[in-house]
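Lab meeting, item 3. Inverse folding demo.
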């Protein structure tokens, strides 16, 4: 049995930047265990598996896996899979499609060369003091942007949002993997545990996402799900309307740009993230 697959760079302004993604078609007969093995073998931050296609309505069901586990929601896999569907699979290059993921339907649309997703309503979980971070990082008390809290937020996958005061602090960040992981296990309310550090500087955002997978400290090049959480956080604490670019991956030589367009009206969060994708390769995978 062979599966056609595509490799895409997501949230990338040019090739060999952004976050890599493998998109597998015709995966409806695979078990979750088989998908997990394939995702581990290719070893990108995430891989997606298209399990069902509805050509008449431009809809698809997908499953998302990191090398370690399945994700209920993840931004760069959804954006990249949508690019493949819009440009390579669905007829007539539709301007809007719908993806079904474990948290529900995700509306997708494109404007010129940007593909946008609309995120689910956020949940704001526990807020933390900075003392815990001092125990597992090189951060000092005055390195945090204290006007906003440190808080866990989820729109399907949860991230602890950590505001820092400037890019010098962000660039110099060092974490103790074991102590960090102990803190995450003790404090996070969901099984998806990760930190999203950011700086708002000169009207743009610079960010870093770090987590522990397979007992290794991992930094992600571009994290769409974290970006939806950050956008919700900024809509709540910074401004009821946001239109900017989140730059991630600069410190691991995979520069990424995640476009933000959001608004908060009463209690409704309209959270949109967008990005460009670059086609890299296609092939067949022997199962």
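The presenter then showed the designed sequence:
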């Amino acid at each position: 049995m062979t599966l056609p697959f595509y490799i895409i760079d997501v949230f990338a302004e040019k090739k060999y930047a952004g976050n890599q993604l493998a998109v597998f078609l015709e995966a409806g007969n695979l078990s979750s265990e088989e998908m997990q093995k394939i995702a581990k073998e290719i070893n990108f931050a995430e891989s997606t598996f298209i399990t069902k296609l509805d050509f008449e309505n431009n809809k698809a069901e997908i499953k998302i896996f990191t090398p370690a586990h399945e994700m209920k929601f993840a931004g760069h896999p959804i954006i990249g899979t949508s690019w493949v569907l819009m440009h390579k699979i669905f007829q007539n290059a539709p301007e809007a499609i719908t993806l079904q993921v474990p948290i529900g339907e995700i509306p997708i649309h494109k404007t010129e060369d940007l593909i946008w997703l609309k995120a689910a309503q956020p949940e704001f979980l526990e807020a933390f003091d900075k003392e815990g971070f001092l125990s597992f990082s090189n951060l000092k008390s005055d390195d945090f942007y204290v006007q906003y809290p440190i808080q866990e937020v989820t729109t399907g996958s949860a991230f602890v949002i950590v505001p820092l005061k400037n890019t010098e602090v962000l660039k110099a960040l060092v974490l103790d993997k074991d102590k960090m992981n102990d803190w995450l296990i003790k404090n996070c309310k969901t099984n998806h545990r990760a930190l999203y550090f950011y700086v708002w500087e000169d009207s743009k955002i610079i960010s870093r996402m770090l987590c522990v997978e397979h007992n290794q400290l991992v930094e992600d090049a571009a994290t769409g799900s974290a970006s939806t959480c950050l956008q919700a956080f900024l809509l709540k604490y910074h401004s009821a309307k946001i239109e900017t670019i989140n730059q991630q991956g600069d410190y691991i030589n995979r520069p990424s740009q995640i476009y933000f367009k959001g608004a908060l009206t009463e209690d409704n969060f309209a959270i949109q993230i967008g990005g460009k994708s670059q086609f890299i390769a296609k092939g067949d995978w022997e199962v």
